[in-house]
Every structure is written in C-alpha cells, then in structure tokens.
Prior knowledge:
Layout: E1 2-3, E2 16-28, E3 32-38, E4 43-49, H1 55-59, E5 69-78, E6 86-97, H2 111-114, H3 118-121, H4 125-147, E7 151-152, E8 158-159, E9 171-174, E10 177-181, H5 186-196, E11 198-206, E12 219-228, H6 232-253, H7 255-260, H8 265-269, E13 276-279, H9 280-289, H10 302-309, E14 316-319, E15 332-333, E16 336-340, E17 342-347, E18 352-359, H11 364-373, H12 382-386, E19 395-401, H13 402-410
Parallel strand pairs: 1-2, 4-6, 7-11, 13-14
Antiparallel strand pairs: 2-3, 2-5, 3-4, 5-6, 8-10, 9-10, 11-12, 12-19, 14-17, 15-16, 17-18, 18-19
Helix pairs in contact: 4-6, 4-13
Amino acid sequence: MKWIYIEDAGKHVGEEVEIRGWLFNKRSSGKIHFLIVRDGTGFMQAVVVKSEVSDEVFDLYDELTQESSIIVQGVVRADKRAPGGYELTVRNIQLVHRAIDYPITKKEHGIGFLLPRRHLWLRSRKQWALMRLRNEVEMAIEDFFQNEKFVRVDAPILTPSACEGTTTLFKTDYFGEPAYLSQSGQLYMEAAAMALGKVYCFGPAFRAEKSKTRRHLMEFWQAEPEVAWATLDDIMDLAENLIAYIVERVLETRQEELKLLERDISKLEAVKKPFYRITYTEAVEIVNKAGLKMEWGEDFGGDEETVLAQQFDKPILVHRYPAKVKPFYMKRDPENPDLALCVDVLAPEGYGEIVGGGQREDDYETLYNRMVEENMPIEDYEWYLDLRKYGSVPHSGFGIGLERTLRWIAGIHHIREAIPFPRLLEKIYP
C-alpha cells in the first residue's frame, strides 16, 4: 500500500493509500467516527464506519488521544465539505504512540501559557499555516534575487565591530578578544558587491534592543542586497519589485494558509506597482495632520509608523530622512547635505517598516572624517575604508526583515508568531 502525503491526496482519488501522521481532533456520531489527521503537509478527515472495519479498529477510537501518532489506511474520496477537499474512508488504523495529557487543548490558551510550549504550539493550525507561509516568503526572496542574477554571499555571524550602533550589540568572547553577534551583513555585502556586482545575503541578525513592542525580536532574519553602481532611485525600484513579487507569489501559492489565518486577501491584492513614494518631510506633515505631534528631525517611532502606514493601501517608500538619525555610512543628498539618500518601506494597514536602506557614502575622505566625528574606532573599520581606496563606485542596498514582512502578509498582531522559536526580551526558552 502506498504511503502518501495529505497535500497529494487529490492525485490518488479512488486509490487505497496510507497516511502517517498525528491525531489533531476527533468526534463520533455513534456508528461513524471522524478523525482529523495531520501529517505536516495538511489536515485530512478520516471516516471510520463501524460496518466497514473490524471491531478492533472501530473500538480503537476510544484509545486515540490528541497528538497520538497513527498510521491510517483507506480509500481517498473527493468531498468538497472536507478539510482540503478530500477525505479518507478508513480500512485500518495502527496506533504508533499514544500521547498522554497533551497540554495544549482545544480551549483558548493565553500567550503566557503557549510561549514556553512553543515546541508544541507549532502543531496548531494557525502556526502550521504561518510556518508554511514563512517558507514561501523565504523561497520567494531567494527566487527573486536569483532570477535577477544576484549572487548569494553568506555574511559572518561573528563580527569584530558594530554596523547599526554599539548600544544593541550582543558581546561574546573570541579567544580572549571581544566579538559580537552580527547586527547586519551590510558592510560585508558592500565588499562583495565590489567583487561580484549584485549580491545578497540571507540569514539571522541580532539586536540587543530592550524593546517589548509587537515589532521587535532579539534574533531575526533578513535579506540584504547590495548593488554596485546603483543609486537611491535604483534601490527603491529594487525594493518595490521584490515586495510586489513576494505578495504575488503568496497569493498564487498559499491561498489555503491565508484562509486558515482569516487574512483579508483583498488588502494584499491591492499591492500592485507603483507604490507610494513620499519624502520624510511629507511624511512628518501627514503624521501631524493625523493627530500625533512630531518635530522635523525626529525619527519615526512605532506609533508614528503605524499612523503613517494606516493612511495608505499600498506600501509607502519614505525617502531622504535627516542625516543625523541615520547611520554613518549613508550618503548625503547633494541638494541638501542635511538629508541622507536613504529609504524606509512601510507596509500598509499600520504594519510599519519592513525595509530600510539607501545609497552608501563612496568617498574615502568624507566617510573617514564622518567616522572621526562620531568617535568610531577607525582601526576596526580599516577594511571597510579600503573599499573607498581601491576602485570606489556608487553603490546602494537595503535590508528586508523576514518576520516583519510575514507579519504584514499574514495579518498577525505580534511578530513572535512569525518565527519558529522567538527570542524576546527576557525570553529564550525553549
């Protein structure tokens, strides 16, 4: 008998097959038992009719508990009312392992109960859908850059210096020398772009931010493209194309998961190019008109981003922030040196920033003097300055946060559900 995965059930209608999985739920109407079985690829109803199986198989129902592992054999039937559109008429059931007192029951549980049991919480329908959606977004990002002829270059996790400021570094010991968990692969991608033209890295990053907002993780994943010869406008186009591709891909391939998450897909269907593009100055005016008080020169906080993103039905590219609120490596706007040639992309519906980047300073003297002004340890960045000494060219890039992007696409409230095992302030278990 052929072992199949639930997601492939439609290819085997009328055939006798074997499903290997776990009991998600069960109910009975006397002479008919209904089992919801999950196998990681989907959920399927298995129907046990008393007159069609042995007494031993029928009576096994009473022993089956939530999350017991089972092997079910039967015939695949098409049924539009069933989960996934197919069900299994059972011929035989084998109990592999009986789960006892599974802690996450069908009642509502609070987040304080669920987080320490994240290793089990992942088995629920919503979390199953989120992880499959996350996988699709990851693959969409990879495919987009590969289709655009980018070269993936993996950045190191252990670094000798900061990229995004020294206050959010996780420090560790590297054989007697200080080292830090990477905040970003950007500086290394700048080096790689000078060798390979169009590059990107995709991996974890770490920020020791003492934040308890619904947008922050201590450990998160991001993709960071960097392009030699690219200007701010070029990189804004790239970000727009990437986001549009991700959304289109998810709508095409993950309708079942979006339905389970009860996502209003009309909001995603509205995400078509061109996106909105506004300056920082225009964004401040919008925020103030919406009722928040914000001075020109301040950076956007979570509240300001939320209010701004609620004004639009598509992503917003906010460009040319005050240089003083952006990192040292941002190139200044030649038309106004007080502004940086940078961009943040805010997701609509109030979800806020998902992309940050811009054009890098490519002049050696300018960058060196800026680093001196900011009292940066020049010796730690000599390799980075070398890039401006040997064939420097204009170049630009950005980082796109995987979890923030998934949070928006999935329509979930908190970012902790957008990663398999979240690392939050004071929470590192399991």
